[in-house]
Amino acid sequence: MNQPSIVDVVGLFVLIAATIFSTEVSLVVAPYLVIIVSATIGASFAVARREKSTRSDAIFFFARVVGLAVLLTVGAAAYVNSYRPDLSPRILVAPIALLIGFIGDQWGALLGKIVKLMYGAIDLFRKGGPNG
């Protein structure tokens, strides 16, 4: 009897979830378990960057960041897959959730840097290049 090989982290979580749930349920639950674990790891870095607060604030922060990752990760993975079909959403969920967790509350600063970069690119094209 050939055992299927595990080629990604979602496959590992399917195997782990199959010990608790049926195979059909574990196929659905496993990607979300990966998202929760990855976002929690990313959020641990974000909470280390935050100013010191109470435990309840930290738990609320973790819950908020992980909830955001659960809501956004699958859509972001499908979006990336639409432009890069060689990248499976199954492979993308872990790094995207980790990134969302890592960013934490810094979305405003990140978007500000992106806007500043876009304005710099517009100025560069408007002046006729770097020598213009």
Provide keyphrases for this structure:
mainly alpha; 5 helices
Protein model, in words:
Helix 1 packs across helix 2, helix 2 packs across helix 3 and helix 3 (55-83) packs antiparallel against helix 4 (89-103). The chain has one domain (9-105). It is an all-alpha fold. The model has no long low-confidence stretch (mean pLDDT 87). The chain contains five helices and no strands. The protein is 77% helix and 0% strand. It has helices at residues 9-18, 23-49, 55-83, 89-103, 107-126.
At a glance:
Helix content is 77%, strand content 0%. The protein is mainly alpha-helical and 132 residues long.
- What is the radius of gyration? 19 Å
Total domain modules: 1
The portion of residues forming beta strands comes to under 5%
Order of helices and strands: HHHHH
Count of DSSP E strands? 0
Structural class label: mainly alpha
Unreliable sequence segments = none
The overall pLDDT average reads 87
Distance between the termini: 69 Å
Secondary structure: helix percent:
over 70%
Mind describing the biggest β-sheet? none
Please report the number of helical segments.
5
The gross shape turns out to be: flat
Topology:
Blueprint: H1 9-18, H2 23-49, H3 55-83, H4 89-103, H5 107-126
